[in-house]
Amino acid sequence: MDTDILVIGGGHAGIEAASAAARMGRSVVLATQDLSAIGRMSCNPAIGGVAKGQLVREIDALGGLMGRAADVNGIHFRMLNSSRGAAVWGPRAQQDMDAYSLWMRAALERHRGVSLVAGEVVDLEPVQDGFRVRFSDGRILTAAKVVATTGTFARGRLFRGEEAWDGGRVGEAPSKGLSDALQRLGLGLRRLKTGTPPRLRRDSIDWSLAEPQDGDDRPWAFSILTDSVQNRVRCHIVRTGPGTHARLREGFSRSPLFNGAISGTGPRYCPSIEDKVARFPERDGHQLFLEPEGLGNDRIYVNGFSSSLPSDIQDAALRTIPALASCEVIRYGYAVEYDAVDGTALHPTMEVRGVPGLYLAGQTCGTSGYEEAAAQGLVAGANAALSVSGKGPFIPDRTSSYIGVLVDDLTGIPLVEPYRLFTSRAEYRLHLRHDNAEDRLTPLGRELGLVDDLRWERHRERVRACDGLRAALASRKLEPDRIRGFLESRGESVTESVVRAVEIARRPRVELEDLAAELELPDLPDRMGILEVESGLRYEGFFLREEREIERVRRLGSKPFPADLDWLSLEGVSIEARQALERERPLTLARAAKLPGVRPSDVAVLMMRIRS
Predict the structure, then answer these.
(1) Dihedral of CA 334/376/13/9: which sign?
(2) What are the structural domain ranges in the chain?
(3) Which of 78, 99, 370, 487 is in Cβ range 3.0-4.6 Å of 12 for a Cys bridge?
């Protein structure tokens, strides 16, 4: 074999797949049509967000590259949902997208065990102990395992008004041969759709008419290896209005989204501007975010204005917004339609069920988003490496990671639209916070060989410091006069008796970082570690309830249902749930609980059925 593992595609899934397999000691070739496009951000120039940010933290906890790249190349950092509980906080960072791509390529070029090859793969032929892979120029390469991450390039076709042309992105050719190869291997393909908004020239915008949006005063880093990050730009907010919507409606008859030119299913939670206007006619406006695409270019990304309407309609609609009245459009928005497989054709290892040794990851599996793609790539690359080594698989657990939620949903539930991860998809999201990603996953990553010595030592230092902080809070006793001023300054009632510091730390208006400084506690963990300790103390009661529920599901979830179970006659189960259960006939409670239409009350009845 020429290499242990061939990774096809240099997007976010391909990068993490190649890096994971190489960290585990396997030889990797990453093949992509254009080496300069490695890590390119086709759409939103940002990393993270609600649930997505947790994914990035988990990728980093397992030794991946995305978190470090986002820290180095981030230009605007915000913690989303910070006014709510820590379980739904979502770190997000606007990126210098050109610098991000260059950083990722350089990281792979110097990555031990990774070789980069420019070329288009057009055929995969299973042979003894692996695959024979043919490139469009006739080159042949053999690999023990293949990880395909073609993204939106698989027979990609772009749409803008009456225009339609082949491509994976503007100016880049699609990948046609690989779709045919996958079909020859027995994989069914479906068409999905995504889109991107216009880019505007920075100097053509009247910034005085846009609402500023600053980054956080103390921004959070993604990676445990990053000491600090800084904001370097400001984003802005504008709104569409009735005039904008009127101009958009003028182009509906010419829209490929409405006239049938696009057959693929688009993401429900990231609709185009024309789709929003059509679906919500009562709304008089929609918020748009003006986000710089980097420090070394003058492009502004219009987040919220994804569109495949004709260029003249996009132009006219944008100019109805006061701040954009004289805007210059560098590139108009467009839609992309592409081939994807159904995730249920994959094992939870991301290996194709009917083609041993072939793994898929990224948008080609029916997901949306850089972060979801990168997480799948890491799982696929790690499992390909484990398989080459003759070791058992890595199957992420949905009770201990958002990566597990993503993979379990994707491979276990038939999906009709591009999948996007949300915190609401996790049953135990109090356990899956961004601040405890290392605690949940880094020991596992070390065991698998994904985590190097430097990262492991950083993790152990944080664990030691967090344990020390917990012990100090539990043992430190405070007289009322010692803590009176601190509590009064935060609007908290003053205790009249000696109290342990840990009880003060649990109070809702007390931040543990401030309390530790007030008490001059030594040897503190870093800021992320302090937040992990604080969350653990504050939500301790909820955690215990979640842990009991997790244990109950683990205990009963894998037990099989009786083979002759008559789903349609189950008493106490809703009709919708009965129909879903009869259609899918799940083998276990864990699988039944995730079916659309099966409610928690139905799961409780099914649990009793298993116990009996």
Answers:
(1) negative
(2) 1-451, 453-542, 558-611
(3) 370
CATH architecture of 1-451: 3-Layer(bba) Sandwich (3.50)
Give dist(CA 580, CA 415) in Å, integer.
14
What distance in Å separates the CA atoms of residue 91 and residue 56, rounded to the nearest whole number? 9
CATH architecture of the domain 558-611 equals Orthogonal Bundle (1.10)
Looking at 369-523, which runs of residues are DSSP E strands?
477-478, 499-500
243-249's contacts with Cβ under 8 Å and 24+ in sequence apart are 243/320, 244/285, 244/317, 244/318, 244/320, 244/321, 245/277, 245/284, 247/313, 247/316, 247/317, 247/320, 248/273, 248/274, 248/277, 248/309, 248/313, 248/317, 249/277
Cβ of 567: how many Cβ atoms within 10 Å? Answer: 19
**Ramachandran angles phi, psi of 467, nearest 5°:** -60, -40
Side chain identity, residue 14:
G
Segment 535-550, tens digit of pLDDT: 999 888 887 887 777 7
Hey, what's the torsion of the CAs at 293, 297, 299, 300, to 10 degrees?
50
Cα–Cα nearest to 420, from 192, 262, 179, 153: 192
94: closest CA among 289, 376, 311, 254? 289
Helix, strand or coil for residue 128?
coil
Strand pairing of 211-213 and 477-478? Answer: unpaired
Model-level pTM?
0.91
Helices 52-61 and 66-73 pack at an angle, to 10 degrees, of 110
Tokens of 183: 């079909």
What percent of the chain lies above the pLDDT cut of 90?
76
CATH of domain 453-542: 1.10.10.1800
